[in-house]
Amino acid sequence: MTSVLIGLFVFLLILAALSVVPLKLSPLFLLLLPVLYYAVFNSFLMRLTPKIITTDLLVASDAVVEKAVFYGCRKCGWVPEKVADAEITAVSDNKGRRAAVKISYGKNGYTIEYKSSNNMQYNADTNTISPKYNAWVAKLNKSIRASVDYSN
């Protein structure tokens, strides 16, 4: 949603600049300007590096963090699965987009790392991804943190 608002603001600035400078532009160009801007903005400027989120905690045991991770994942729609000692894989599917993260944890905290994705515009060469991924992971982190506070 934020990127849409930023895009609208920039588009309005472009229109304001065009109205100050008298140019003879065809009506077709003016109609296609928002489409062109949206394509450029989404493809180049809004591709971000997948965030690695590390959260420091002070809790009694690994079990407290594990319980909070499972609860926090489920609470915001992620499906968690324990894959090893102190490691959980969580998957989120939303409107044809899929993201998987690796969550490593211990009593001193946890780390959320990118694992894989589908339809999230991930590019391994440039290590960039759709901003939706980072928004999903930020929401997941917030949910887990709230769950740690709750289960502690």
Shape verdict: elongated
Mean pLDDT: 82
Q: Note poorly predicted spans.
A: none
Helical stretch count?
Answer: 4
- Number of DSSP-assigned strands: 5
The number of domains is 2
Strands of the biggest beta sheet: in what spatial order? 1-5-4-3-2
Kindly state the percentage of residues in helix: 40-55%
CATH topology of the largest domain: Alpha-D-Glucose-1,6-Bisphosphate, Chain A, domain 4
Largest sheet, strands/sense/barrel: 5 strands, antiparallel
> Hey, roughly how much beta strand do the residues contain?
25-35%
Give an overview of the whole structure.
The protein has helices at 2-20, 27-45, 62-75, 131-151; strands at 53-56, 79-84, 87-94, 97-106, 109-118. By secondary structure, it is α+β, with helices and mostly antiparallel strands. The chain contains 4 helices and 5 strands; from the N terminus they run H-H-E-H-E-E-E-E-H. The chain is elongated, with a radius of gyration of 21 Å. Helix 3 crosses helix 4 (131-151). A 5-stranded antiparallel beta sheet has the order 1-5-4-3-2, covered by helices on one side. It has 2 domains: 2-45; 53-151, Alpha-D-Glucose-1,6-Bisphosphate, Chain A, domain 4, CATH 3.30.530. A hairpin with a 2-residue loop joins strand 3 (87-94) and strand 4.
Brief account:
It is built from 4 helices and 5 strands, in the order ααβαββββα.
Sequence-ordered SSE layout with sheet pairings:
Blueprint: H1 2-20, H2 27-45, E1 53-56, H3 62-75, E2 79-84, E3 87-94, E4 97-106, E5 109-118, H4 131-151
Helix pairs in contact: 3-4
Describe this protein with a few key phrases:
152 residues, alpha+beta, Alpha-D-Glucose-1,6-Bisphosphate, Chain A, domain 4, 2 domains, five-stranded antiparallel sheet, 5 strands, 25% strand
